[in-house]
Amino acid sequence: MKKALIASTSTLHGGNYLDYLVPELTTLFKNCSTLLFLPYAQPGGISYETYTKKVAAFFSQIGIQVQGIHEFDDPKKAVAAAESIFVGGGNTFLLVSQLYANDLMTLLTTTVKDGTPYLGTSAGSNITGLSMQTTNDMPIVYPPSFKTLGLLSFNVNPHFLDPDLNSKHMGETRETRINEFHAFNTVPVLGLREGSWLAVNGNQVTLGGTLTARLFKQNETPIEIQPGFDLSELK
């Protein structure tokens, strides 16, 4: 049975890394003592080792030992044997490229659907939808496909921002970009604001946090959905 936490971000303003998710992570990983971390979305600036140490420092507080996938000779065996999995943020194009390069996309989907608990933040949340086409990231590399894990029946837009009505900026908003996606695609898109997440338990998908999320469907007026809303039937 699928068990996942799909968060818009890893860090809230004024907070520490993942600390706002501690209650949910304690529940998600309650039967786990080890976690496999995939730092593939990291485009530079810090190494996989440094990124993994940051993750390990957090999870040590809740009694979970972390290893990075780059520490294993065989990434596929590492995923298949993982007790729990975390895919962190960075650039979604790079993340998807690396998952395909290591032949992990289908395996990761199967592994999570078979019950391995999954945490995704930012790029790691983008890939839980049907495709990565609603990412905010720049295409710094060219993945072989936009198709992603398909753990959800819709796409996610993490870090969703509402227009600033006091701003003089005349460029495109996130809503404009999602509407452009819907000019050619029928897949619903959930704009997930900072501090919000999706809790997946089997076939049930519920909006968590204290903020509303914005739901976009092709040729329909976007709506705000409340925390606790069940997205299980969204298609």
Structure notes:
The chain is α/β, with parallel strands linked by helices. The chain is built from seven helices and eleven strands. Strands 3-2-4-5-1-8-9 form a seven-stranded mixed sheet. It has a four-stranded mixed sheet with strand order 6-7-10-11. Strand 10 and strand 11 (223-225) form a beta hairpin. It is globular and about 45 Å long. The mean pLDDT is 96.
List the main descriptive attributes of the protein structure presented here.
235 residues, alpha/beta, seven-stranded mixed sheet, globular
Q: What fraction, in percent, of the residue positions are helical?
A: 10-25%
Question: What is the H/E order?
Answer: EHEHEHEHHEHEHEEEEE
* End-to-end distance: 20 Å
Q: What is the topology, as strand order, of the major beta sheet?
A: 3-2-4-5-1-8-9
Number of helices: 7
**On the 0-100 scale, what is the average pLDDT?**
96
Give the biggest beta sheet: 7 strands, mixed
Shape category: globular
Percentage of residues in strands: 15-25%
In short:
It contains 7 helices and 11 strands. The chain is α/β, with parallel strands linked by helices and 235 residues long.
Topology:
Layout: E1 3-7, H1 22-28, E2 34-38, H2 48-59, E3 65-68, H3 75-81, E4 85-87, H4 92-101, H5 105-113, E5 118-121, H6 123-126, E6 155-158, H7 174-182, E7 189-192, E8 197-201, E9 204-208, E10 213-216, E11 223-225
